[in-house]
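Bug report (template v2)

What were you trying to do?
Predict the complex of my protein with flavin-adenine dinucleotide.

What happened?
Run completed; filing so the output is reviewed.

Input:
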Amino acid sequence: DTALLWFRRDLRLADLPSLLAAADAADEVLACFVLDPTLIASSGERRLKFLYDSLRDLDEQLDGRLLVVRGKPENRIPLIAKAVGANSVHISADHTPYGVARDERVEAALSKVGDDVELHATGSSFAVTPGRVTKSDGEPYKVFTPYFRAWRDHGWHTPAKSGPTSATWVDPADVTSSEIHAHDIPDLDVDLSIPAGERAALKRWKQFRGGTGDYSDHAVGDYDDERDRPDHDATSRMSAYLKYGNIHPRTMLADLTRLESDAETKTGATSYLRELCFRDFYASVLKQWPHSAWQNWNRDFDAIEVDEGTDADAAFEAWKAGKTGFPIVDAGMRQLSGSGFMHNRLRMIVASFLVKDLHVPWQWGARWFLDQLIDGDLASNQHGWQWTAGCGTDASPYFRVFNPTTQGLKFDPTGDYVRRWVPELADIEGKAVHELKDGRPSDYPDPIVDHKAEREEALRRYQALSK
Ligand code: FAD
């Protein structure tokens, strides 16, 4: 008999509990992926390229035995299950609003196939399943730090011991019929600054956790001191791999807890582990409050005055193009459009600028980020934006308005980051690049707003809200 292993955002073979569950359930396993037009339509080009390359990596590891089809999962999965006579379909749970609704539809459709084919969810893409860590009264956490404490106390499983040889794989060529059209894995002519796939993820992680030479032996060790320095580029860049499940966070946490017992890497490992917890936290927040995907988590903010219309459109275009005349903001926005990645400190700076200096709805910025980012992820992105906009769970207070120049001086003190991304400013040395006190090159724009005045305006709007 055969079980179906349906991949989604878990594009790997190591540490994959659903693979072990499928192999346990039947003699043979058919691996499949459904190109879902709804998800494809909502992914930016770079994310699609990352997805397709991840599928290629998976297919290679399976010696070409990944079945890829295109269509609505609620149509495709039952068809495939029926064609191979599968009794069970195995997945890693997906807790996003779309994922939950889709899986309910698939489950209902499967129950109509022959003898009730079951959809089995084993594991998720998170260290701790979203929604599992709650307060003692069962209520979800609204504040990160107590969630973090409870998350650590709860703990997580050790990595599942799975891999390419964990199952006897069915060759899709033996099961495709006129109803099941195998689809080639698509390709896109897009450069990725981060190579996709499980093997690339494991390589990158080994470099970052240390011990393999070519990155830095102490990347994790230095993380706590260096993580806020975009000019040093000292973060792991693991986010896209986590987003597509090329690696499971548990694999990383197993290393991190080991690194915590070494004096040289302890502080960095704890600090990194805390960031991974943010990812779990925001997935939990989205599961508990699905409205927060596109609406203010804190509904009190629904009444805040935002700018919409021609002027806001023009300001938004300047922001997207990295032509605001604020060097640190422009550098961040150009890193985004130029590479599909942006350093976390920059994400906070440019988001604050859009919401509090330009008074544009955070949703506009969040949509642009999702379009451009390779790691674009609904839970982390929307709640990152809402943290900045002040309407999220334990958000940065609205009245704390980042001064872009001060942020630049503090976090890019060498000015190297700005020069790397804004070529018009390449000849201005040192940190002077942030203030441009001696004038601006003629091809670099004047500031599109007066930060001081817009800060006052942001505070006025906030005060009007709290009245
Ligand atoms: P590292 O510093 O090496 O962190 C390690 C891992 O921890 C990351 O890969 C990520 O999985 C997780 N992590 C770190 N910080 C956060 C955080 N604040 N929230 C959630 N997870 C975190 N992250 C995304 O993965 N996708 C997004 O779409 C996204 N959008 C964001 C939008 C805004 C406005 C803000 C402020 C943050 C956003 N983040 C997002 C969080 C964070 O900026 C990125 O995860 C991080 O920059 C990725 O780089 P890295 O892997 O080198 O991070």
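What did the reviewer find?
The chain has 20 helices and five strands. The longest strand covers residues 28-35.
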